[in-house]
Amino acid sequence: MIAVTGATGHLGRLTLDTLLRRGAPAQTLVALVRSPEKAADLAAQGVQVRRADYTQQETWPPALDGVSRLLLVSSNDLNDRPGQHRRVIEAAREAGVALLAYTSLLNAGTAQMGLAADHRATEDILRASGVPFTLLRNGWYTENYTGSLAQTLAQGVLLGAAGDGQVTPATRADYAEAAAAVLTGEGHGGATYELGGDEALTLSQIAAEFSRQGGRPVAYQNLPVTEFAQTLNSFGLPAPWPRCWPILTPAWRAVNCRPTVATCAA
């Protein structure tokens, strides 16, 4: 059986959809969710739906019963993500899970942004656990920009603090394809995959593409770091997130970018 955590979230749900499309029998798939009632449509397709909460250790042994492969989609709770992930990893060890794939962060070993520390800590927990694992180091999501596209087009401005730094965004569906390939394939144990889109883009280039596709002018406005953080806060982004957003200053890029392809962790 293949289990996916966060199965009602964006990436978890897309991964299950991809597994089904690839021909995985529904009865061999397990959707791990905090609220099973929210996964009723998956249950209707024959997918097993089990309750599992990152914050409640007792939910994990029954949730992982019989599971041989597990996708651990990283928690979006910034309070104690490594601790939450540890609960899952320890339960996976006890359950005898044969492969755990973890959605980490692009260049997690060297990335300097705030989000990287939690991913590095989780990777260390995995290495010490004895559970066979694969690291899916996902880059920045295209949806981080397209999710607010209507507002960007209406205002004609894409805000950021990136300068001429480059990102290689890919869609959640692309990352779901990678996860499904690992969960159903062979030879991925111990592998680390740095994942991202095919093309490195500046935010100015992204703004230009929005303008071309949307039929109205969109300009990239580069803000000082503190002003950009305040802007994100004003949009309602929780306090920890602005410090985690990729600030692509030249010094930051020197640490996080691959020199051959100018790809930045995000």
UniProtKB/TrEMBL annotation:
InterPro entries: NAD(P)-bd_dom, NAD(P)-bd_dom_sf, NmrA-type_oxidoreductase. It holds the Pfam family NAD_binding_10. Its EC number is 1.6.5.2. This is SDR family oxidoreductase. Residues 6-184 form the NAD(P)-binding domain. GO terms for molecular function: NAD(P)H dehydrogenase (quinone) activity. SUPFAM superfamilies: NAD(P)-binding Rossmann-fold domains. Keywords: Oxidoreductase. It is an enzyme of class 1 (oxidoreductase). PANTHER family: NMRA-LIKE DOMAIN-CONTAINING PROTEIN, QUINONE OXIDOREDUCTASE 2.
